[in-house]
Amino acid sequence: MLADFILNLESANDVSSSFDILAKASEQLGFQGLVYTSIATGLEPLTTSGPLFFRSDGFSEAFLTHYQQADFASQDFTIKRIMNDDLGLMNWWQEEQKGRLTDYERQVIDVARHEYSIENGLSIPLLKNDHQIAGCSVVSQDKGVVFGLLLEERLTTLKVMLRLFHDRSYANIDFQKQLYLPLLKQLNPTERTVLRFLASGLPLKSIEAVSGISPSYAGNVRTVLFRKLGVKNVSELAYIVGLHRILDLI
Q1: Left, alpha or beta for 71 (phi > 0: left; psi -120 to 50: alpha)?
Q2: What is the DSSP letter of 134?
Q3: How far apart, in whole angstroms, are the C-alpha atoms of residue 56 and residue 237?
Q4: What are residue 133's DSSP bridge partners?
Q5: Following CA atoms 81, 50, 29, 108 in sequence, which dihedral angle do they give, to the nearest 10 degrees?
């Protein structure tokens, strides 16, 4: 099964097709639903739009809509753990049973359980760096011992598949465009022009000859870009532009 998954994944030519292959494989393993989440934590245009989701048919669309409308990302303990460099598997109900969740954090999984009949859920972190986090969550209607046996027999294979999907998506610039381009379009044309110029390393006083934008106005735009991109100076901006390959995305 894993060999077939790898072959199918390599043949996919976009993120959606890759995720569909992953979703089908996770269902074959016995998990009812799957969602892949990516959050660019350093980019204001991304964080203000909330997490990016890819959802399988078995993962409740109504729950994700509720999640976004209620801003559950701000109280989601799985996101907080990843932000604090905890990249271990998180079993939702075990975390609750062990008393590790605040009342505020528990609200997310209480809604999942009582309003959307999600019996069991796991979150598996896949990435955490200074500017991005990502992970997958799977859900199951199996209870107790049955769910435990499912994890014992299939969890290792699932984690390998999730890693393969994520690594391919993160490494492929065309896939990254599909993930981030709609959100980076929130940068207006002038901001994009100044961003490209700043990334060139040329002094700001030269921008008028290149783009017709005065240095003083470009300086104001630079301040806006620093805020939007979550950086303090040109060096930090150049770092995240390279990290996210932003010049290839805008």
Answers
A1: left
A2: E
A3: 35
A4: 39, 128
A5: 60
Tell me whether strands 120-128 and 52-55 are parallel, antiparallel or unpaired: unpaired
Question: DSSP letters of 225-243?
Answer: HHHHHT-SSHHHHHHHHHH
DSSP, collapsed to helix, strand or coil, labels residue 34 as strand
Q: Where are the beta strands (DSSP E) in 56-203?
A: 90-91, 120-128, 133-140
Buried-exposed string 105-120: b where 16+ CB fall within 10 A, e elsewhere: bbebbebbbeebebbb
Strands (E), 42-182: 52-55, 90-91, 120-128, 133-140
Tens place of pLDDT per residue across the chain (250 aa): 899 999 999 999 888 899 999 999 999 999 999 999 887 665 554 444 455 688 999 999 999 999 988 888 888 999 889 989 999 999 998 898 899 999 989 999 999 989 998 889 999 999 887 667 889 999 988 877 888 899 999 999 999 999 999 998 877 767 666 666 655 667 889 998 999 899 888 889 999 999 999 999 999 999 988 877 767 888 888 877 776 677 777 7
Q: How many CA atoms lie within 13 A of 217 on its CB side?
A: 10
Note the Cα 73 to chain centre separation in Å: 12
- Helix or strand or coil: residue 55? strand
* pTM for the full predicted model: 0.73
List the 120-128 sheet strands across, edge first. 52-55, 33-39, 133-140, 120-128, 90-91
Instruction: Please name every residue paired with 34 in a beta bridge, in sequence order, or none if there are none.
Output: 138
